[in-house]
Structures are given as C-alpha cells and as structure tokens.
Amino acid sequence: MSFRPAAAVGMPLAEVDTPCLMLELDAFERNLKRLPESLHGRNIRLRPHAKSHKCPEIALRQIALGAAGVCVQKVSEAEALIAGGVKDILVANEVVGAPKVKLLAELNKRAHVAVCADDAGNVAALDAAARAAGVKLDVLVEVDVGAGRCGVQPGAPVVALAQQITASGNLRFAGLQAYQGSAQHIRKVDERRDAITRAVGHVRATTRLLGEAGIACDYVTGAGTGSYMFEAASSVYHELQAGSYIFMDADYAKNEWTESGIPQFEHSLFVWTTVMSAPAPERVVVDAGLKASSIDSGMPRVADYADVDYVKASDEHGVLQSRGATRFKVGDKLKLIPGHCDPTVNLYDWFVCMRNGRVEALWPITARGALL
What are the phi and psi torsion angles at 70 (to 5°)? Predict the structure, then answer.
C-alpha cells in the first residue's frame, strides 16, 4: 500500500511533514556523476546496485550516465524496476523456490534478467523454468571470495558448476559473481585493499581453471562503494556493483578514504524529523525511531549539529542528547543521516527530492518491500 507523500512539489522544507525520506538533489547528482567520472579511461562497466534505492527513476538516471544496467537482490525488485522501464538487470543473488524461479524466467520475455547460482539442484530448477518459459537464461556462478556468505569455493567447484550450466539446454554460463561484501566497511584503507587483493587472487585462479576446462569467462562482476577502485585496477573485474555511493550513509562515512583512489561522496539522503517532546534541556525526543531509520549499522547521525547525538531508538521515538550548547524545542525539525541507507530506504514509499529549500520532485520507491 502506498500512502500519501509527506510533501507536495513546490512546498518549502519547513512545511514538509515528518518523518520522511529526503533526498538533497544537488549532492545526489554530484555523487551520481562522480563515480563514473572516477572510472574515466578504464575499460570497465558500472552496474549500480539498485537495492540501495529501489527506484526506477534513479536507475534510469544511472543508466543515462553510462551504466550497463543495474543489480537487484530479489526477483520482485527486478519486476518493479522492469515495470519502471529498466531493461537490463542482474539478480546478484540466488533465486530459490518454484514461484520465484518461474517469475525470473518469465521476466526474461520483457527484459534481460540474469541470475546467480551456487547449487547444482538450483541450476537444474533454473533450466527447467527457462525451458517452460521458452527463454535462454543467463546464469553466473557465485564465488565466495572471502565474504563467507553465498557462493561456491573458488577453483574446481566453480568449474564443476559452470560445466553443468554449459551443458544445460536452456541456460548460458554468463560469468562469475565475485562480491567481497565483508570488505566494504573495513575502516583502514590498507586492510580493505588487502581483502580485495585476496579476492582478486581467488578470481584469477578460478578463471584460469575455467580456461583450462575450455570454458570462456569474460564477465566478472562485483565490488562495492567501499572498494570499487581496487577491483577496477585489478584487470580481473569487468563490472562494478557499487550502490550506496549515491547516498553515503553514516556507517560508510566512518571508512578511511584518503589514498584509496575512491572519491569522497557526499551525504545526500536524510530522514527529516520533528522534535515531539523536550523533557529536559539537554534531551529531546524526535518522531523518527526504529520504523523511520535502520540502526543495524549504528544509530543515525544528527546532521549539522556536531554536539548532538542520537542515543536511543524505540518504535516511533528517537532520543537526542546534547553535549554542548545546542538546544531544541518542540516543533523544531532537523535532518538525520541514516546509519545504513539500504534498509532505511525500504521503510518509505517516496523520496522527497529537495533543491534550494523547496520540494522539486517526489519519486516513488516502487520496489519498497519487494522481498520475494
């Protein structure tokens, strides 16, 4: 169900209802351009991860700037983005279960939708669904390059699964998914680079074995906002999946960026919130709690006030504590920088897009809640 937006086009910021998800367009547009510009001269593609924004309007803007397409994590996310006009999608995840596998195959009649696999039984199910739909489905083998999540181990297990895909009548082996997710928030640049160097070694050894088995692998995809320049420099990766760069949440801001080669992106995504109670001079309560901002990667940061901390969240309340002279009163409005942008976006129906203090646009988050 989509509820009314918290704002209307042309409305001044002070009148925007709360809590809402606010996108500052100037910073967002600079971020949007900064990443592809940082790759100038490199023979590598960008396929941003749309799980960060779940919004066709943003995906189409990324593609207009040269992205090959986008990534998603769920088939239902792919369905929502296709309905919004996106034509090239990688489900950078495994899709398991008959209804979802059937939908995945059917979506290939409307757009190009590739998928990852790390299990022989799942490959057989994908082949059967593609046969029933009358399509040829692109399947990537996901390799565990150090994240300890999904994926087969590098080397011979990848070759075995690629051989099964190649032998399947309705599938095409499309390459490797090699995302080192646990490296993205390693704070120190050298340690983050070392983690990607190890991942690159796994990929290089695996592609060599694939070649020896007579299987060409000309597509390796992965990387994230915290590491993408390391993968870009490796000569092993062909495509980069950074997603959070357009928003930059509070957790990513804790990373070291100097000497990484990765540009410093700007905070563009905020939760706009109102002080609903002021029970003590140094303590106030805002109307943005757990249902307004994800805290899985830490509490939100209070933008523009270095001496104020967001210290506690309950369902509908957030407690702010002042360590200095800043004082708020009931009715004051302020911006919070989410700790983790992706699950925070999934809490909202709309981006309220601001420029020069007024609402310029309202963008629906059409893949919000797309969990299937």
Answer: -135, 165
